């Protein structure tokens, strides 16, 4: 019974993040610097699951992202799937009880996703590409890492995460 309750709680946190992505994120100004709640939901899900399930979740989240913004349809699906796989596979190595490491985990997820979307989507080139990867990606990564830490601290019992430090 406790395992079912934990899954329900984790699901509620993930659903909250998806709702925040579509309800709050548009009000946070430019989408380039706003935290990516969908990616955050994927990374939190990937922490507690196997790589295969994380790939499927990443693919579905990428499909949702591509459906909303179909500039280069398919690039987000592939990017989110790769990030989900890498996050689930690397959780033992990269996700620790240290908040700095957790923030770096979230920041790294944003950077990897952005690089893959830009490379596969081929929507940006030249100076725009450099500006995106040198300025907007780190800014969004920082915002996502801050929100990710806030979510982990606020829901640490529900998510079964211990953060010390």
3D architecture notes:
With 165 residues, the chain is mainly alpha-helical. The chain has one domain (2-159): Arp2/3 complex 21 kDa subunit ARPC3. The protein has helices at residues 2-23, 37-47, 51-68, 75-94, 99-121, 127-154, 156-159. α1 (2-23) packs antiparallel against α2 (37-47), α2 (37-47) packs antiparallel against α3 (51-68) and α4 runs antiparallel to α5. It is globular.
Give the helices and strands, then pairings.
Elements: H1 2-23, H2 37-47, H3 51-68, H4 75-94, H5 99-121, H6 127-154, H7 156-159
Beta strand count: 0
**What is the assembly state of the chains in this entry?**
single chain
Secondary-structure-derived class? mainly alpha
**What is the class in the CATH system?**
Mainly Alpha
Tally of contiguous helical segments: 7
- Any guess at the CATH architecture? Orthogonal Bundle
- What number of structural domains do the residues give? 1
Rg, please?
15 Å
- Percent strand equals under 5%
End-to-end separation in angstroms reads 32 Å
Proportion in helices:
over 70%
Coarse shape: globular
Major beta sheet summary: none
């Amino acid at each position: 019974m406790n395992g079912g309750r934990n899954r329900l709680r984790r699901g509620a946190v993930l659903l909250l993040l998806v709702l925040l992505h579509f309800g709050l994120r548009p009000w946070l100004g430019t989408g380039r610097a706003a935290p990516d709640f969908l990616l955050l939901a994927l990374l939190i899900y990937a922490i507690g699951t196997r790589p295969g399930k994380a790939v499927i979740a990443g693919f579905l989240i990428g499909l949702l992202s591509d459906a909303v913004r179909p500039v280069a349809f398919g690039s987000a699906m592939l990017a989110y799937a790769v990030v989900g796989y890498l996050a689930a596979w690397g959780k033992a190595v990269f996700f620790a009880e240290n908040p700095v490491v957790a923030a770096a985990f979230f920041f790294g997820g944003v950077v990897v996703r952005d690089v893959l979307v830009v490379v596969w989507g081929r929507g940006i080139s030249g100076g725009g590409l450099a500006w995106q990867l040198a300025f907007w990606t780190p800014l969004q990564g920082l915002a996502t890492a801050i929100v990710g830490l806030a979510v982990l601290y606020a829901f640490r019992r529900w998510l079964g995460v211990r953060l010390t430090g």
